[in-house]
Design brief:
The protein is mostly beta strands. The protein contains three helices and 25 strands. It has two domains: 154 residues, Jelly Rolls (Sandwich), CATH 2.60.120.1390; 159 residues, Jelly Rolls (Sandwich), CATH 2.60.120.1390. Strands 3, 5, 6, 11, 13, 15, 18, 19, 20, 21 and 25 form an eleven-stranded mixed sheet that branches. It is globular, with a radius of gyration of 21 Å.
């Protein structure tokens, strides 16, 4: 059940929700925190238990907090989260069915298409970002025996997080694929190298989305590069080859405003979008872009392996392509069977930092 046409059907699913007011999601257990144990006990001191006594969590510096540990079978339906401070310092990890390695490992901002630590509204089917820093995810995430989610705080200071995870307990089909998301960053991209969005995949599944946080280090247009999907037995040449960066993100002609032709035009649609951070004040020295593309109606299916790359190309003299040395970070979203290959190590805090 995931669209309007199915909402009238009778179902045996059980709705549950986890937040700081109900860490386990158990029925009839929300808002039970004793006043003396609540993080908001001072604000609720005149009202007592049940009156917003424990609405958020504090995560100590250099520590990890388990925000969900759910027994299945079930399906994650919605994640809402609002972080503080640097969004690259808070790492989301999700583990399915007792796997040792995470299937999701990503800074929280990039996971919700906010790679530059700056708010921009997104109105898509899979991710919505609303004022003031409300991150929402609607990817469906099935699991058979267990779902474990953690947040790691890389910062030197304690951080506060409000969150809610909505899920259903339900029977699942015999064959399911598990949700995955992997973050990468290269800054700067070495000259004439191709940026790798995803590689080393082992399993059967479908690729469902790309987010890029792209910081340009040159003037003029930067998006001539092609995205390429190397599926299963592909070696030197891919099965799917795009025609340009803006083309892949379902735009055209440099994302130009068609009315003025002198500026970029931001947009947010159900499947694709562009955010533009312009160099319009002191210390912001270059353009930065956020782009998402959801392959919801057009997943890229693979049986054994998948590799995804994108070129960074601009223009130089003589009408020639210029290989760019830009700051590029990405999140690849896909579903696949388990077990999955171990991810490359996540960069350290200094390499993650937006500077």
């Amino acid at each position: 059940m995931h669209d309007l046409s199915a909402l009238y059907q009778v179902t045996d699913m059980k709705s549950r929700s986890i937040c700081a007011e109900n860490f386990t999601g158990e029925p009839g257990k929300g808002g039970m925190c004793p006043l003396e144990q609540g993080v908001a006990r001072h604000a609720a001191r005149d009202l007592g238990t049940g009156w917003k006594v424990n609405p958020y969590i504090r995560i100590a510096s250099k520590s990890t907090f388990t925000i969900a540990d759910i027994k299945g079978p079930g399906m994650i339906r919605h994640i809402w989260l609002t972080p503080q401070d640097s969004w690259r310092n808070l790492i989301l990890r999700i583990y399915w069915d007792g796997q040792e390695n995470p299937s999701v490992e990503c800074p929280i901002g990039d996971f919700f298409c906010m790679g530059w630590n700056e708010y921009a509204q997104i109105s898509s089917l899979a991710v919505c970002v609303n004022p003031g820093s409300a991150f929402n995810c609607y990817w469906q995430m099935p699991f058979r025996s267990n779902c474990r989610m953690t947040l790691e705080n890389l910062a030197d200071e304690e951080t506060v997080v409000y969150y809610q995870i909505d899920y259903t307990l339900q029977e699942l089909p015999e064959k399911i694929a598990y949700f995955h998301a992997q973050f990468r960053r290269v800054n700067p991209l070495p000259y004439k190298e191709v940026y790798t969005i995803l590689d080393g995949i082992q399993g059967k599944g479908q690729y469902v989305g790309t987010y890029l946080a792209w910081g340009v280090n040159n003037a003029n247009w930067w998006g001539e590069g092609e995205i390429k999907f190397y599926i299963d037995g592909d070696t030197d040449y891919p099965t799917i080859c795009g025609t340009g960066t803006e083309d892949y993100f379902c735009g055209s002609y440099n994302f130009e405003d068609p009315a003025t032709h002198d500026r970029y035009a931001s947009f947010s649609t159900p499947y694709t979008g562009l955010q533009v951070l312009a160099p319009d004040h002191l210390y912001r020295s270059q353009f930065r872009f956020g782009m998402y593309r959801w392959h919801i109606p057009d997943p890229v299916c693979f049986d054994e392996k998948l590799k995804v790359t994108i070129q960074a190309l601009g223009w130089r003299s003589g009408g020639r392509y210029l290989p760019l040395q830009d700051d590029i970070a990405s999140v690849a979203f896909w579903y696949q069977t388990l077990p999955a290959a171990k991810f490359p190590p996540l960069p350290d805090r200094d390499y993650l930092e937006i500077v």
